[in-house]
Write a structure and sequence with these properties.
With 456 residues, the protein is mainly beta. Helices cover 13% and strands 47% of the residues.
């Protein structure tokens, strides 16, 4: 009997220790999507003041933050707490099971000295892997990693603003990186944080992480892309207020990342608001990881070039994206923009934008298969691969004023197949209503406009 009781106790202990500390967040989508698991952090706090941090915006607290993060992770996880006040720091590198918690009134102010973000770390630049300046908040190969709370991330921007320009040295660095990526030079040899290359770091990059949580905090400014989830699996981005109006200041870039919910965020951007990417050319073909199973809902976009952008770095493929019930309070260039070119390959499929209203847009929907920007003449085409595009839908979308409801520019070598617009309405169209080339199975239902006003 005693032996049986011991076995029973061992069984109970085994059940208790095998329980994973996650809660499931169910997400509705027009495709199969498993619940996203949100890690429940241990109830242990590690205030940065216990590790020597000093508020006031003068003392460099980089080492105090690093020590608190290391202690938290070594203890099995919990919260690294940043109290109310202004805390100056350099790069913050998170570790597994660590929740960087910003109390209300807390401001992490990041210095704009490039040397504070060295040594260089494995990262990427516009879809090409390299070693570059550390993102200001960075996590690499971590699981259960978070930034939460009602505080703020605020980089000093004086130096980074001088890097927004693209002088000859910067363009030459981009050319070198593109050439290395196109000729399979090992990533560790692509050292870009040198000389006057001036490849700006991301504000937040979680690289090859799982079970990511970004919840509740504010952002004011960014050197480059603001939030970048790269090769991540499982993420919740909730209730953020993001403001960044510098060059390349996308709001959130999900790249080669899957199983993501973005909800109830506000984006006020100098570039695209929500962007789904999947790497560039040979690097993405090597990594072979699509961005997929992504839902964006109930977000507000104050400013942005694009509400929902797909690409142009999308060589690994993008599928199963659903953005719905979002609103724009200002103007955008394009409401729904899918962009690629003949160097990318990959695919875009099963992507839906639904139940959105906006005031003014140049295009409500645009698909462009030859977007090259500065790369058109900067570097040659090493290999041609055409992007497969299909099952793209826009439903229940209204716009007060637009130049055109849609413009679809497919590639004759592999036409776009399957575009559906339903219950799409513009009050005023100022250029042309619609245009499509190299598109098969284009389906419209209740696509209307109130008034056409042109100069012709």
């Amino acid at each position: 009997m005693k032996a049986l009781y011991s076995i029973f106790l061992l069984f109970l202990v085994g059940c208790a220790t095998s329980r994973e500390p996650y809660r499931e967040v169910k997400v509705e989508a027009p495709f199969r999507m498993e619940p996203i698991r949100e890690f429940i952090y241990p109830e242990r706090d590690f205030p940065i003041t216990d590790y020597g941090a000093v508020a006031g915006g003068v003392t460099d607290n980089t080492q105090a933050l690093a020590s608190a993060i290391a202690s938290c992770s070594e203890a099995g996880g919990g919260r690294v707490v940043v109290p109310e006040g202004v805390w100056l720091t350099g790069a913050v590198h998170l570790q597994s099971n660590v929740n960087l918690h910003l109390k209300a009134g807390a401001v992490l102010r990041f210095v704009d000295r490039p040397e504070a973000y060295l040594p260089a770390v494995p990262t990427s630049w516009e879809g090409m892997e390299c070693y570059n300046y550390s993102p200001l908040v960075y996590a690499y190969d971590c699981q259960n990693v978070a930034i939460t709370g009602k505080g703020k991330l605020e980089p000093q921007m004086d130096l980074w603003r001088t890097w927004f320009a693209r002088p000859a040295a910067h363009m030459e660095a981009l050319k070198q990186l593109y050439t290395m990526a196109s000729t399979d030079v090992p990533v560790e040899r692509r050292q870009m944080a040198v000389g006057e290359n001036h490849l700006r770091p991301h504000l937040i990059q979680f690289n090859r992480c799982s079970h990511v949580l970004l919840d509740g905090f504010e952002i004011n400014g960014s050197p480059f892309w603001t939030i970048h989830l790269y090769l991540c699996d499982g993420a919740i981005v909730r209730g953020l207020k993001v403001y960044a109006h510098g060059h390349n200041n996308d709001g959130i870039d999900l790249e080669m990342t899957r199983n993501v919910l973005v909800e109830e965020c506000t984006f006020d951007q100098g570039d695209d608001a929500v962007v789904i990417k999947s790497g560039r050319n040979r690097d993405a073909w090597r990594l072979d990881t699509p961005s997929e199973n992504i839902v964006v809902r109930r977000c507000t976009i104050v400013n942005g070039h694009t509400l929902l952008g797909i690409g142009s770095e999308m060589s690994g493929g993008v599928r199963n994206v659903y953005m719905h019930d979002c609103q724009l309070t200002n103007d955008v260039y394009r409401l729904f923009f899918l962009k690629t070119n003949h160097r990318r390959g990959g695919f875009m499929e099963n992507i839906t934008l639904e139940n959105v209203k906006c005031r003014k847009a140049l295009r409500m929907m645009e698909i462009d298969t030859e977007v090259l920007y500065q790369w058109k003449d900067l570097v040659p085409t090493y290999e041609t691969r055409i992007t497969r595009i299909g099952n793209i839908q826009m439903r229940q979308v209204e716009c007060d004023t637009t130049q055109a409801i849609y413009e679809l520019k497919g590639d004759a070598r592999l036409p776009i197949r399957g575009v559906k617009l339903e219950d799409v309405h513009a009050k005023v169209v100022t250029d042309f209503v619609k245009a499509a080339s190299h598109v098969e199975a284009l389906n419209e239902k209740n696509v209307t406009y109130g008034e056409l006003i042109t100069d012709n």
